[in-house]
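Posting for a labmate who doesn't have an account.
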Amino acid sequence: MAQTLVPLKYERGRLEVLNQLLLPHQEEWEIVKNLEDGWQAIRQMKVRGAPAIAIVAALTLAVQLHEQRATLTSTGAVRTLVHDAWTYLCTSRPTAVNLFRAADVVRSLTDRLEASGDGDVGVMIQTIIEALEGMLEKDIQDNRAIGRWGASAILAGAAAASGNSKVAVVTHCNTGSLACAGYGTALGVVRSLHEQGRLERCYCTETRPYLQGARLTAYELVVEGMPGTLIPDSAVASLMTSRSVAGIVVGADRVAANGDTANKIGTYQLAVAARYHGVRFYVAAPLTTIDLSLSSGKDIVIEERPAQELKSIRGVAIAPDAIDCWNPAFDVTPAELITGIITEHGVFVPGELQSKVENLTRQHL
């Protein structure tokens, strides 16, 4: 199945992002000329999804380095620009760990290049830009692997339960091509099922208050020709009592060492409903989303968004202006409610996550 949707367009020195706030009714591409443009695109949620946030930040820095290459006259100046740029970009969204992981990787590379004593500024800039660009392709490869592993897990569980040839799944928020460099994480699992001819239907939640499910996931399902049905956030429990659901698969913005997972607000209540109804609940996320420095979800910083995002839709007020609001962008699903965490290296139960990730990290050092 051909992929037709992408969240960004990049060639060296030029980055454009699709303004997802205007979807599905309007497709508008915006040029990211500098760090401020990239920061605003992420902060305003024109681009969103933990993997896409990291990729756009990385490519924003690549554009900035390319633009300033003639004025950077020392390796120390390059290092300062890279470190300062990541410090700024990391203030755009605090919950998605992929952004901070990308920052650490590129800062470390920059430090090593400066310490090497080569002194060739042009080579240093070229090497950093190539590393930033490499994150784009790696994200797509990882997402395809996540899709394969996740589809296999869901089909295996469904076969054990009923033996049906096709399966129905539920997903929340948007975790497809628009949330990544391409293909998708949780929606990548759905995409893989569809490519294998095994997807009966994907039920996507509207995902209030930003409606990423209604505006973006539903849009991807329609454009990509995957069988899909949009449901209210409040209908998931009822769905599981009236129709056969093989599993719920969601994305993640940060996964703690014990498997507790931060994802779009509303994920936790889906997991609670899934446990009650005996439905498998999966989290799809690349290793870059797993943060072993946090022992549990209690340590995850939860971003709170402006009240106006809750009280209005596209500028149209839907609540009294004077009402107080609590608008967390994410919630934390406890590990005990998660059947498995789908990564590019396999599906891990939360209890084995830390040891598996540590082993994989050692293998790739």
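Reply:
Got it, the structure tokens are right above this. Residues 8-138 form a domain with the Four Helix Bundle (Hemerythrin (Met), subunit A) fold (CATH 1.20.120.420).
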